[in-house]
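Help wanted!
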Amino acid sequence: MYGPKRNHVLFLFDGFLENFGFPILALILLLGGNSSDSMMTLVIIIAVLPIKRFVEFMTTTFEINETYLIIRRGLFTKKKTEIPLSTITTVDLSQDLLFQMFKVYKIKIDNTAQANDAANQAEAKLVLKKEDALYVKQLLLSHRPEDLQEDSEPAPQERIVFDAGDFMLLGLLRSKIGYIFSVLSVLYVGGSLIDQSVDAERFIEDLLNGEAVGDISFTSAVIVILVLYLITLAFALLTNVIRYHRFTLSKKGYHLSIEYGLLQKKKYSFSLDKINGIRLKQNALMRIFKYYTMEVFVIGYGDEKEEKAQETAMLIPIAKRDRVENLLEKLLPDFELPKSLSRPQKRALPYFFLSFRFLAALLLLAGSLFTQNMIFVAGAAVLLALAAVGEVLEYKTEGLSINKKNVAVANGRFTYRTTIVKTGSIESVRCTASMLKRKKGICHIAFGFWGPKMVANPRIRNMNISDYEALTKAIEF
Amino acid sequence: MEYKKLDKKVITSWRIGRMVFLVILAVLILGVNLATRSAEDWETYKPIFFAVEGALLLYALISLLLYPVIEYRQWGYYIDNEKVEIRHGIFFITTSVIPVIRIQHITISSGPIYRKLGLTKLVIHTASDEFTIEGLTEETAGEISENLKNKLIQKSGKAGS
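Answered by r_m:
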């Protein structure tokens, strides 16, 4: 049906900066110096790397027949990988700037083997001209039932575009530096007001007059922090806007696709039945403004390094709850936000403090008391306070909702997460507790579901045993 | 629902494993003491060193003598047509429920100590996790494995039809 064919010659330049950027930069830097030995080593590295890529280009061919995508590679050790078309979950097209100039696409193919350790064996990457790329994509997805095929309907039924404003808001609310800055400001001002040696009235007066407070010029410190913060924030906002430029979700029949990017264009598409779960996330700032980010769990989706690390990817960049609900109804009717959650009992609260984090902070404080160094003691006390606040927050945010359609788990300390999976995809349920805790009807609940490894085993602490029992009853036997 | 117990020989196997750990720990402690004995502040820190080492040795000794008995009491498994239930732990007891239909494959293995005692370990794999039943005789493990495979075939047949 197609091939055997080699990749497009631009395959040689795929990930050029990633592979050669550092050695070339090092070479440029060394050219200014006198270290001829190091320069020779780098010259060799830079010369050898393209040879390796060239050999890979020359020895890799692929073909598609009616049932398999067959990839042959290797110079000395010949390797043939046959991927059944029926197992292919996602076929993603992407272009960096160079590829855009030559109308060439990189095709990333993932199949169900991504769920286990054979993941890397089954993943395949091809580089092809636009018309070939589109044809190959069509062939690769041709094995799906007709109602699952992406192009089986002429136009998208739903098309949602998130604009630059959304991503600026996202950058603003997710900026860690902004968060740290806010916390520091609150701590500083709060601390100063509590401290008897600082007169609050005088402090504010000094602050307004731009005079030094104590030994430190508060105004200059604030200006430096503010300028740094604004620069970083502007950079984060710009990066976000470029990276997610025209983030578009479209639904065609039983297919969902996501497109975004200005310099690096990306397009992902997958059938809805391959979505194993969704996750809503809110950091502290987002909670204040009631905004959510939503990710999906699809094996093989997620090309960026940070996404790949978790095998999750963004579906809704930022939205308020009613918009999330509305989009879910339109795009993923198999998932819905929990109406209410079963929460841990009040008597479970002390058990939250039996965590490694809190006990370690407690030990650290005890240890710091021996040093008699007030800075250590204060640092350890702050850590302990943060750990305690974290445990209380976890107690407050935790919850579980079970129904025939979905199981939802909510948890998190400073970042609040709600993971929603299909009840039918749950493969195991676990309950862990000491004998005493069991007598009180409390246990940690964990369950496994068919999904990307990093997220496939959600766990909530100190829940009710009755919830565990309800969960075991709800799963399919 | 009554849990089935593991073979009693598993206590011996756990004890042998923990004995090896105790010996390694003792050798390490001896090595550390010999290496640091000549240090300048040895006399000052000696009590702290001995206290930590003593606590570690005591823990290893308790885990050698007492834990296997407790662990054996807690261990249990239950298999019916629909699910496998496994309970294990020493102080924190974990109960796992795995629907038979979710089992991907089963592996049976045994290390040198298990082989010597005629024991095996049965591992049940799902797509997202794996669950172990330890200390089974080869015969029991074989029976369970066959039994689960048959149930899985029956269930898959029903689901497919």
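OP: Thanks! One thing I noticed: Chain A has a mean pLDDT of 80.
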